[in-house]
Here is the input.
Amino acid sequence: MKTVGVFDSGVGGLSVLRALLAELPGQRFVYAADSAFAPYGERTAAEVSERTHRVTQHLREAYTIDALVVACNTATAHAIDDLRRQYPHMPIVGVEPALKPAASLSRNGRIGVLATRGTLGSARVAALRDRLVAASSRPLHFSFQPCDGLAAAIERHDTAAIETLSTRYVNELLRGDTQDEEPIDTVVLGCTHYPFAADVLGQLSGPGVMLVETGVPVARRTREVLELPAPAEGMTPSSTTLLSTGDPVALAEAAHRWLGLRANAQTLPV
Ligand code: DGL
Here is the structure.
């Protein structure tokens, strides 16, 4: 049995944990939410990196994790290279906005990306976009839409704010550039919080637009790096421990609401 640390600024990484639980039965997951310091999206790269290192160090010392899933696009963008340098022997799987899958799925090559300001402003995501555009045999166009406050609204489970902010950002993204001949047909949910607003975002985007998220490919990649067998009937479910630097009860409620998970939640003392 492997122990896998899963880390996010808050409840968003639960969308990745959901896929991990389905893909990696029989393992032990320790989910760490840095909710006291969320949202990360509007923090500096140095702040996000510092928090990511602290939480990782704690997960290694207190839970001797075999691998870490950085279930946060913003933390991946700002900290994963450093983290891999610091812990060269620990497998670390990050989460990046699904630009590449979106490029394959889009019919017309026009792709919108909803993510935090931090993720979209990072050199890592700009380089990913530029590589894809350069390697593509057809014109590809990515429109980046920062969504200030949306992860925080999901974190608070504030449905009114989720609706208001989603409306604003989807409108800016899809209806901002009226000069375009072709409308955006694929939207990347580039923040692990956003799958929990997928119903609203999907309705606002309309039936012609595909939403793309990353939980399942990240879970598959984690299974590959840990060399674990594919899930099969009759395997024991994985166990989960929930940790939060904020309110552990709020984290346990979110895990129950969205994943149907009943797990013990404790304070993360970092
Ligand atoms: N869930 C995170 C992400 O994927 C961060 C959201 C935030 O804390 O701003 O980017």
